[in-house]
Design a protein that fits this description.
The complex is a heterotrimer of chains A (about 300), B (about 500) and C (about 300).
Chain A: H1 8-35, H2 39-45, H3 57-64, H4 66-99, H5 106-118, H6 123-133, H7 141-144, H8 152-165, H9 168-176, H10 181-192, H11 194-210, H12 213-218, H13 228-242, H14 248-251, H15 254-257, H16 261-282, H17 292-296
Helix pairs in contact in A: 1-16, 3-16, 4-8, 4-11, 5-8, 13-16
Chain B: H1 2-20, E1 56-63, H2 70-85, E2 87-94, H3 99-108, E3 115-119, H4 120-128, H5 136-142, H6 144-155, E4 159-160, E5 163-164, E6 167-168, E7 177-182, H7 183-188, H8 202-212, E8 217-219, H9 224-228, E9 240-241, H10 242-245, E10 250-251, H11 257-271, H12 286-292, E11 295-301, H13 306-314, E12 318-324, E13 327-328, H14 330-333, E14 336-340, H15 347-359, H16 361-369, E15 377-378, E16 384-385, H17 421-431, E17 433-434, H18 448-467, H19 472-485, H20 488-505
Parallel strand pairs in B: 1-2, 8-11, 13-17
Antiparallel strand pairs in B: 3-14, 4-5, 6-14, 7-11, 7-12, 9-10, 15-16
Chain C: H1 5-23, E1 34-35, E2 46-47, H2 54-57, H3 61-93, H4 97-108, H5 115-126, H6 132-137, H7 155-180, H8 184-192, H9 197-222, H10 229-233, H11 243-246, H12 249-260, H13 263-291
Antiparallel strand pairs in C: 1-2
Helix pairs in contact in C: 3-7, 3-9, 7-9, 9-13, 12-13
Classes of the chains: A mainly alpha (about 300), B alpha+beta (about 500), C mainly alpha (about 300).
Chain lengths: ~300, ~500, ~300
């Protein structure tokens, strides 16, 4: 008889993980429920998992400006894809040399990189630099290049991974066979580094997806370059401002045009949707990279 | 695999090169800051769409929702301005939520910006950071129209420390305050609206209605006491002119008997369940809450046409009971002023434009309402409304920010409002009580540290006190001692000194 | 030297980016020491030494905001580390493909929710009038409603939970990647030697994670004076009564300068945060160099 004993470790692990998953999903369910709750019910009864009155008004409102939203999606996807590609390229190209213990000036270069995490000129100087020296206003590059295209965090994490998981003897072996550094990079480092690269790529992709600041600062006239988050944030901040003290008495009519809370929830949900659908497909990349054994041969 | 990687690297290189290639090569001052006036020689025209020729390119910013037909209206305006002023206008729309951040960046960089609306809370900052142009002389040389429209006094009310930074918009500035109530409930419970003359008269009203509608919130709004405008707040409430501004002594509002009386009143109401429990944290506007059906009343400033407007927004019939007279104070008048940014390449031209804006009815109507026949049509009674088949949500241009624009008195009247609404507005302003500090704008740059600390203290307590969410006696003592240790006395003394000086020089 | 050249070429694009994006704008750090007058430009403005920094120390709030910033960050670091590693180990251990996908997706989900929306969700739970907690949960235990947004004492717990919920994924996913990179032959050998799961975790998994743990730790220390503005401003809905436990350096600066908007002072605040982080990181790195040289950042 084959008795399958459930180890207590797995029991604990699964319990914890299930609780965790529930805790994670709950707020999203609430988000969705509030987006299909009727507006006045929201204001009177608050948010609820079991709304009294349903309404698709919020989504109808969104579809009225659907071409704006679809274009915003397009922009966001483009920016996220290009930005993430650039990020991973730049970061891994820096991380690999820095992972080699014998690289001359390694310590100094690491400091150069890490220093950027500690000191920042601030928004105004960055803005001045990008707009006056580089003339980046109202371009699509403005959504990709500033701030997010590379950061010390990624480089350091990737470097740590390369250094701990790829033995340098592997490099030496390859070099004896006549491989150049570039060749080693493409044939050994990148394949073995897949788990960390996919991880950092995910972070960066999501960061780009969520970003609304670049669009806010650098797009004056080209509002057709607005990302989904720009649209959403614009609405929410408009609302926050119009309901604030001094403005309230003047706001009057404007209130009619600023979407209500239900619509904000709907937009937030709509903004998340594409990525939610993407998740299952990303999963296969998280599996273990090509095992060392295969490469050794 | 290898090929894929190489193409990625190629992408990287191409990208970097295309970006670096965008280096602005006409720029001498590579540090990218405002140099001295020679800066104006440099070409900063990256976002102009109209033809250059010999016209001066002027950028006018304003704060409103996005408008589909902005370019169309801009062109119509340009036909006017080219002829009259030799100027081509570039309209820059800033959103309500973003404008503060975007202005801050534009004024710090070298973006093209000539005229824009200056929010009173930020005025001092801009002035002290050298981001605005002092228009004292320009007013004399190019601004006669503005003086004619506003009068000598109001034309200079936007002056701080002798620096004329902005002209006020023509709007309701000294509005009476009222309690706005749902008419159906007022009728149902036979409330005598005439007998309501001050906020405390509402206690009985709330008691009556609450008894009949236990699930309803009687009073909503996070800043009820502030809205009563019982004092001249001298811009930030740190040291005020109490007693409706009828004094020249600067005192601490939060120790004033009147404030304490109202704070206690609100607390009583909160405890009795009249005030919405979440009043301090809800971000919903009062009118939205009424619209949702669960709120009975709120306090607000009123103006001619207010009732119609609010009824439209809330969807209910409303009743208004006036409780306080209008108060004219600098911060109210200077709510949004029009000034010239330091970025402007030709302040004289900009001043000419402002003069034009204050005096030209065609311009005002174009910018606020759009093109006649396209964006609005005249009704039989002389008011205007949406063209056939268009409504508020499908309109392609309808700024409706008269309160922000230079001179809305020149504009057509939107339907639902009395055709003599501007006369009434001005009459209301004239009836309002002027504070003795009207025209005085304090310069708090010398006490910047104290203001920072005070802002934090005030933010900590004010909403709770405004809504009665905390027990007044225990909190008030903490609040005031925190204010004083943050430096309130220093600020009061400084404001008093400046006020006395101003009073003397304006004798 | 020639053999190292290709490596330096590799690092060129990244270096260029840092110069453009990070180092050039650093000229702005001078603003912290100047009374900024834009009509004179940055270099023409008056030098005022440390005057812009005074507001950070002269206020009675200085102690509160410093304490809050530090304590929260320390709590975040410890909790995220312990919980992150635990979850990572659990997930890496899961063998069923589908379950693993679900769990890994679950970790990523919170990234998608912005702090503004999270603020609404928390409000949905804690709203005093309509909140789920006050209306549905507390009555089950027979307790009275709590005025969540009026009482500061609850918020350390609330904010820690909110922050953990939102950020646990970062560390967790990185740990998972690191665990996936461990040579499986190590586990083979251990199994043959008769080590059970717990032993494997403590003798193989965790030691292999040490470089990653140390790296993340040092970087967190560098940011110890910074806070997530959205977390401390949006989630408590800027409620004044909660300031004693929710006001941190970033929110204090924002609230104080919103009206004044003095660029110099805002810049000074940022500079102050950077310097503290810088000193702490150098110290931490030095200590770690002494203990295990290869784990130090530089």
């Amino acid at each position: 008889m084959y008795k399958k004993k459930i180890p207590s470790f797995q029991l604990i692990a699964h319990t914890v993980l299930i609780l965790f998953t529930i805790a994670v999903i709950l707020p999203f369910i609430l988000l969705f429920m509030s987006s299909i709750t009727e507006e006045s019910t929201l204001l009177v009864n608050g948010y609820s998992f079991f709304p009294e009155k349903f309404s698709l008004e919020a989504y109808k409102f969104i579809f009225m400006s659907s071409n704006k939203i679809i274009r915003a999606y397009g922009v966001t996807i483009f920016v996220a894809v290009v930005g993430t590609t650039m990020y991973l390229s730049l970061a891994s190209l820096m991380a690999y040399p820095l992972s080699l213990s014998k690289l001359p000036f390694r310590r100094q270069i690491m400091f150069f990189v890490f220093f950027t995490m500690l000191f920042n000129g601030g928004l105004v100087p960055t803005y001045i630099s990008y707009t006056t020296i580089f003339n980046i206003k109202d371009t699509i590059q403005a959504l990709i290049i500033p701030t997010f295209m590379l950061n010390a965090f990624g480089i350091i994490i990737i470097r740590t991974y390369f250094a701990s998981n790829i033995p340098e003897t592997l490099y030496e072996a390859a070099q004896i066979d006549g491989a150049s550094h570039f060749r080693i990079f493409f044939t050994i480092v990148l394949p073995l580094g897949k788990p960390i690269l996919v991880t950092m790529g995910t972070f960066t992709g999501i960061t780009y997806w969520n970003d609304w600041t670049n669009g806010l600062y650098y797009l004056n006239k080209r509002t057709d370059f607005y990302s989904i988050q720009n649209l959403l944030n614009a609405m929410i901040r408009d609302l926050q401002f119009l309901t604030s003290g001094p403005m309230a008495s003047y706001a009057g009519e404007e209130m009619l045009r600023v979407p209500a809370v239900g619509v904000q929830m709907a937009i937030a949900f709509v903004a998340i949707l594409p990525i939610l659908m993407l998740f299952p497909f990303l999963q296969k990349y998280y599996q273990k990279g090509i095992s060392l054994g295969a490469v050794k041969g | 695999m290898l090929k894929k990687m190489f193409s990625v690297v190629l992408l990287v290189v191409v990208f970097v090169v295309s970006t670096v290639g965008c280096v602005n090569n006409t720029n001498d001052s590579t540090e990218g800051t405002q140099g001295d006036s020679s800066q104006t020689e440099n070409d900063q025209k990256d976002n102009n769409s109209t033809s250059e020729e010999d016209y001066y390119q002027l950028t006018m910013a304003f704060i409103a929702n996005e408008q589909e037909d902005l370019e169309l209206v801009e062109e119509a305006i340009n036909e006017l301005t080219r002829e009259e002023l030799g100027i081509e206008v570039d309209l820059l729309q800033l959103g309500f939520g973003d404008y503060a951040d975007r202005l801050r960046l534009m004024l710090s960089g070298s973006d093209s910006l000539d005229v824009f609306p200056i929010f009173f809370q930020q005025a001092g900052t801009y002035v002290n950071a050298g981001q605005l142009v002092d228009m004292s002389d320009l007013l004399e040389s190019h601004g006669q129209g503005i003086i004619d429209v506003l009068g000598e006094d109001l034309a200079r009310v936007g002056t701080v420390n002798g620096f004329l930074y902005g002209f006020p918009a023509q709007k309701e500035s000294g509005s009476p305050k009222a309690v706005v109530m749902r008419k159906d409930l007022v009728d149902k419970y036979n409330i005598d609206v005439e007998s309501i003359n001050s906020l405390s008269d509402m206690t009985d009203v709330y008691a009556t209605i609450k008894a009949g509608e236990p699930g309803m919130d009687m009073l909503v709004g996070p800043d009820t006491i502030d809205r009563l405008q019982l004092v001249d707040n001298l811009y930030d409430y740190f040291g005020v002119l109490a007693d409706f501004g009828q004094t020249t002594e600067v005192t601490n509002w939060f120790e004033d008997d009147v404030f304490i009386e109202y704070a206690r009143l609100l607390r009583e109401w909160y405890v009795d369940g009249y005030v919405m429990p979440d009043a301090a944290t809800s971000t919903e506007s009062a009118s939205n809450l009424v619209k949702a059906g669960n709120a009975f009343s709120y306090v607000s400033q009123t103006k001619p046409g207010f009732l119609v407007q609010e009824e439209r927004v809330t969807g209910y019939e409303l009743e208004i009971a006036q409780i306080e007279e209008g108060l004219l104070m600098s911060s109210g008048v200077n709510f949004f002023n029009w000034g010239i940014a330091n970025n402007s390449e030709n302040p004289e031209k900009a001043m000419e434009f402002l003069n034009f804006a204050y005096t030209n009815a065609d311009f005002m109507n174009l910018i606020n309402w759009g093109i006649e026949g396209v964006h609005y049509e005249f009704n039989d009674d002389g008011t205007i409304g949406h063209p056939e088949g268009i409504d508020a949500t499908s309109s392609t241009y309808n700024l409706n920010i008269g309160w922000q624009l230079p001179n809305q008195y020149l504009c057509h009247v939107w339907e639902g409002n009395p055709t003599d609404i501007w006369e009434r507005t001005q009459a209301q302003n004239d009836e309002a009580v002027p504070s003795m500090g009207l025209g005085f704008v304090p310069d708090t740059s010398t006490v910047a540290n104290e203001i920072t600390a005070l802002s934090n203290v005030r933010n900590q307590y004010i909403t709770a006190l405004n809504t009665g969410s905390v027990d007044v006696d225990s909190v008030l003592e903490d609040f005031n001692s925190a204010l004083y240790s943050a430096g309130l006395q220093k600020v009061i003394d400084e404001k008093q000194r400046q006020l006395d000086e101003w009073l003397m020089s304006n004798q | 030297m020639k053999k190292w050249l290709p490596l330096y070429i590799m690092m060129l694009p990244g270096t260029l980016y840092f110069i453009i994006n990070n180092y050039i704008p650093m000229f702005g750090l001078i603003i912290a020491f100047k009374k900024m007058d834009f009509s004179k430009g940055i270099f023409g403005s008056e030098w005022v030494g440390f005057r812009n920094f005074e507001f950070l120390f002269s206020t009675s709030d200085a102690f509160v905001i410093t304490r809050n910033t530090l304590l929260y960050n320390i709590a975040f670091i410890i909790i995220n580390m312990v919980l992150g590693i635990t979850l990572a180990i659990f997930i890496a251990d899961v063998t069923q493909r589908h379950l693993k996908k679900i769990y890994q997706s679950a970790i990523l989900l919170p990234f998608l929710m912005s702090m503004v929306i999270l603020g609404y969700i928390v409000y949905a739970f804690l709203s005093m009038q309509n909140g789920i907690v006050n209306n549905s949960i507390l009555p089950i235990f027979g307790k009275d409603p709590i005025f969540w947004y009026n009482e500061a004492k609850h918020w350390p717990y609330i904010l820690i939970i909110a922050n953990t919920w939102k950020t646990i994924g970062y560390g967790c996913l990185i740990y998972i990647a690191a665990i996936n990179g461990i040579d499986p032959s190590l586990f083979e050998a251990a199994r043959i030697d008769g080590a059970n799961k717990i032993k494997q975790i403590f003798y193989i998994t965790i030691p292999s994670l040490v470089p990653t743990i140390v790296t993340l730790l040092i970087m967190s220390i560098g940011r110890i004076f910074y806070s997530d503005f959205g977390l401390f401003y949006q989630v408590p809905r800027n409620a004044g009564l909660l300031y004693p436990t929710t006001n941190v350096v970033d929110t204090y600066v924002y609230r104080g300068l919103m009206e004044l908007g003095n660029v110099g002072m805002a810049s000074a605040a940022g500079f102050y945060q950077s310097i503290v982080g810088f000193i702490l990181v150098l110290s931490a790195n030095m200590i770690i160099r002494k203990v295990s040289k290869e784990n130090a950042l530089f």
